[in-house]
Amino acid sequence: MQIGLFTPLLAQLPLENVLEKLQSLHIAAVELGTGNFPGDPHCKLTMLENSAELDKFQRLLADHGITISALSCHGNALHPDATRARQAREVSRKTILLAEKLGVPVVIDFSGSPGDSAHSTAPNWVTCPWPPEYLDVLNWQWNEVVTPYWIEQGAFAAQHNVKIAIEMHPGFVVYSPETMARLRAIAGPSIGCNYDPSHMFWQGIDPIAAIRVLGDSIFHVHAKDTQMYPANLTRTGVLDTKPYTDERNRAWIFRTCGYGHGEEWWREFISTLRMFGYDGVLSIEHEDSLMSSEEGLTKAAQFLRGLVIEQPPSAPWWA
Questions:
Q1: Residue 264 lies in a domain
Q2: Which of 73, 102, 103, 260 could form an SS bridge with 227, CB 3.0 to 4.6 Å?
Q3: Handedness of CA 99, 103, 108, 113 (dihedral sign)
Q4: Is residue 165 classed as helix, strand or coil in its secondary structure?
Q5: Hey, how many other C-beta atoms are within 10 angstroms of the C-beta on 20?
Q6: Digit-coded pLDDT (tens) for 234-277
Q7: Residue 117 within any structural domain of the chain
Q8: Is residue 315 part of a domain?
Q9: Using 50, 70 and 90 to split pLDDT, how confident is the model at 56?
């Protein structure tokens, strides 16, 4: 495995400075945002039509010995606002085409969230089965919006030899291993997941046990932790809508690796990923509101460096 970085936290730096910083931290791979939610100036979709710009970009990465683990275009292609949905879909398609040009095997996205009908203006995330109209909404979303879009998008990705890794995230139709499996069954094997354990913790899902459920659908992994606060959890439950910066009162917050769960937990997490065939990048995503970007990145890189399993296992002596 390798340690990587999702780079929006360094968006204020030129790409060359970002790559130099990664070298200093012994980080070998980058995950680059191309548009939609991850605003990131380092990977421009204009490279699709500008070969000189593309060549310069590739040379810069090669000169610093950095590879790309994934391109990320987290968006809501199912948004009930037609203009917003169209924009998200255009970015997602162009990102797949750019990934093909760059030889990047994975594009990361969200599953999206429709409204509650064809006349909606805002997304509607259904989280309970009763009163019965909620299930009516959920069935309409999956049958009329989710299924046709993702069948088409999965086929498009497969035609261009790219896999789409869906990040299971609150607010979208895919947020759990079960909903991930449902989408994959519909859209085919080019659709899998970007596995971020931080989004399992707050739901009460054991992220290590969930690896056994997700299996070979894990295409990419985010390295991010979550800290739970039982005193607040008793009052609010896990569906906590307070701002992430209201740390004192939230039931949970995102943390830098090692600050929600210790080294023993992360060793087992990494080992179980290897056990089920994942030998890719652990891409650090910094969303710890108690730490600066610089501190969170440095601490995560130092913490993970001693835990990663760097070489594929050789055959045991008794084999």
A1: yes
A2: 260
A3: positive
A4: strand
A5: 13
A6: 999 999 999 999 999 999 999 999 999 999 999 999 999 999 99
A7: yes
A8: no
A9: very high
